[in-house]
User: Which sequence fits this backbone?
């Protein structure tokens, strides 16, 4: 390579073609990224990793199982809402691990009401309390859908469902209280 060509590359008046860039990178023992950007590229070896581990390293999956180790996040309703919104906005990213029940609940609520325009604060609180008392996502989803789709079910059909849910919650609380007294 001539000194004139090298001077043009160094002053950014011209750039080497890919073949020359590869030769320069090889000669200096750096990556082409380093030549172009001046930063060392992070290289992670995936030798010996399982497919699932490779997906984690390459950020193709979101491991929600890690929430068990962070009670400050797992117990923060706002953080769970944000994670639920994030997971729903990343359709190309897989979700692995055991999803905490509280996050499943927030993901279900986000799916039904992503803009937080359908459920009132009281309705959302009722659904959350119902879900946490009974730990039954199917029943909780039924309640949420009745409230969410009031127009389809008819307001008069939703009111008894809400009243029944409140009665069931109260009954469950009384059962817990009786068990504590024993």
Assistant:
């Amino acid at each position: 390579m001539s000194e004139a060509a090298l001077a043009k590359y160094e002053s950014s008046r011209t750039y080497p073609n890919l073949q020359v860039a590869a030769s320069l990178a090889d000669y200096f023992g750096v990556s082409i990224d380093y030549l172009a950007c001046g930063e060392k590229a992070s290289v992670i070896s995936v030798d010996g990793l399982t497919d699932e581990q490779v997906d984690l390293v390459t950020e193709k999956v979101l491991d929600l199982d890690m929430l068990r180790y962070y009670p400050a996040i797992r117990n923060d309703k706002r953080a769970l809402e944000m994670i639920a919104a994030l997971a729903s906005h990343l359709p190309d990213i897989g979700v692995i691990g055991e999803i905490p029940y509280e996050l499943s609940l927030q993901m279900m609520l986000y799916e039904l009401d992503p803009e937080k325009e359908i459920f009132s604060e009281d309705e959302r609180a009722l659904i959350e309390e119902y879900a946490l008392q009974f730990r039954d996502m199917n029943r909780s989803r039924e309640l949420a859908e009745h409230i969410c789709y009031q127009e389809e079910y008819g307001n008069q059909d939703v009111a008894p469902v809400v009243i029944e849910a409140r009665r069931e919650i109260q009954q469950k609380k009384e059962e817990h209280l009786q068990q504590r007294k024993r």
